[in-house]
Every structure is written in C-alpha cells, then in structure tokens.
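Honest question from a wet-lab person: if I give you the sequences of every part of a complex, can you actually get the arrangement of the whole thing, not just the pieces? Trying it with mine:
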Amino acid sequence: MAIMTCETARQEMLIGDLDELRRDADSALATHLKTCAQCRSRAEAILDGYNNLNIALSEWPVPVPKARELARARHRTPYLWLPLPLAAAAALALLLIRNQKTELPDVDAIARLILPEAPIVAPATGQQAVVMEEDGFTIVWLYDQEKL
Amino acid sequence: MRRGPEPELIEAAAHDERAFARLLAEVRDQVFRWALIITGDGDDAEDVTQQVSMVLHRGIAQFEQRSAFTTWLYRIVRNAAVESRRRARFTHEVRFDPDVVPDAVPPATEDRLQRIDDANAAALVRALFTELAPRQRELIQLIDTEGYTTVEAAEMMGIAPETARVHLLRARRTLRTKMLELHPERLEAWRS
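Yes, you can. This is the full assembly:
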C-alpha cells in the first residue's frame, strides 16, 4: 500500500468512509491516521462533529401522535362502513358533529333511512364519531374521548 | 432502526390492530427522523409522520416482504415528504428540489436550534439544513449515521448508486469542512 502524505490525507478525510477515520479499515488513509497524530486530531474533530450532530438530532422531540392518528391505528375495522352515494354521504357527514356540548344525532335512525339493510353501531356515551370518505366508501370512526 | 421490525410483527400487523399499533410505535421515531432530514422542517416532518402512519395503515396488508421493510417504509416517507414540500409550494411559495440547498431554516427548525445548548451542535444542525440539499442530507443520514451501504441507500432513495456516491462525497466535503471550522484549535495544531 502506497504511503499517504498529510496533504493527501487532509483531502481524503473530507470524503472518506467513517471507518477509515476511525482507523478501522484497510486503507491508505486509515494507515496514515494510525501513524500521524496531527492528521488523527483532524479526523477526531470530524468524528466528534458527527457525534454532536447525531445527539442534537436524536434529542429533537418527536411529536405526540394526534387523535386521528391514534384512532386510525387502533380501529382498523370501522364500526360503521356504508357504501353511500356522494350526496347521502355528505348529508350524513354534516349530521355527525364532533362537539362535546352537542348531543350526537340519532345515527342509527338516519343511517337506516339511507341504507336500511346495513349493520349499524351508534356512538355510545363518551365516544366521538369522525366521518371520512376514502375510495368511494364512507367510513365512520368511533373512538373513546378519554383515550385521546 | 438499522434492521427494522421483526418479520413476525410486520406479518401480524397486516391482520391485527394491536400488532399494527405496536409496529407504528416501533417505527414512528425513525419515520420522524427521516421526514425531518428530508424536509428540513419540524412542522412538515410532523405532518409527514402522520401521513405515513395512515399510508402504512392502508398498505401494510399489501407488503409482501420481497424487499426489506425499511426500504419500503423509507420510500413511503420519502414520497410523503416530497408531496408535503410540493403542497407547501402553493402556500409558502417554496420550491422543492432535492438538489437545491434551501435559502433559510424554516421557523420550526430555527426554534429548535435556539434550544440546543451546545453551540457547536447547533451550528452543525444549521449547516445540515442550510448547506446541504435534501438529497445530500438523506445520504449523510442513511450512510454515515445509520450505516447503510451506498447501494442500499441508493435503492431506498430510488436513485442509481453512482449518483448516490457523487452526492454523498459532495455532502461529506461540505459538512466535514464545517466540522473542522468549528475546531480551529485542532487546525492550528496541525499547521504549527
């Protein structure tokens, strides 16, 4: 293996693999760093930089999942899944209100008017209903308020 | 998350809601980190993380394990992040280009930088987001930080390994030059 000069090592350490900077590789740069204290000091400054960067990024607070995300994760099977024409779905969506002070309308009665044969689960006390339209289906998610 | 979740958990998550919730909890931090690196914006990263959760929810049953789960997941994150930046274009007049270095740090990122106690670390994070293009940041993260090979990272990003290599070397040079600038005492010791 050819002997590397310090000038070359200075350039190589700007682009080399981290294993080389750690002197844990079979390369001319790694070999040079084992023998040259000054170049090794520069390499260690780079390694310190990566360490500081990783710590700073790992401490970046990950946001707490929002309610909708939790609801979707927990309730894979919708309690109410109605294939509705768009107008009927819009009407149903307007009637389902996410408001703690307002009593939820009688979803059961409304849905039977639109699609009498479909199985229906009405929201119970303490539950909230969120209506979504996906791929031509109207999906109603029911989840417990206290678990949000 | 170098190796990703256990295959049994991935398989179970396709059929069981509790398994899916466990899978989501296991990958969420990693998803956020990837989203942050790609978008350079904490707020966007949060939105992307939520979007990815929903895409995972819809798509986990179709994951056939022909590719590595992390590769599949990374592509979902990447697509969501790119789409998030494109949507931002219409509201914030931000042009997204994976090879363009941003002009400035977004407010959410600036806010976070102010909270980093270590001045050198803050300077490096700022350099990461203002002196590297998104594609370069991805390569630094995947290869230098997470230990993927250039070929693996290229596959995750959907680019040719040769392209990945070129961008990686440019990114390393930029970032490491900054790292050395933050330690002038070591530079002076070398010069003397």
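Two things worth pointing out. Residues 73-87, 94-104, 116-120 of chain A have pLDDT under 50 and may be disordered. The longest strand of chain A covers residues 127-134.
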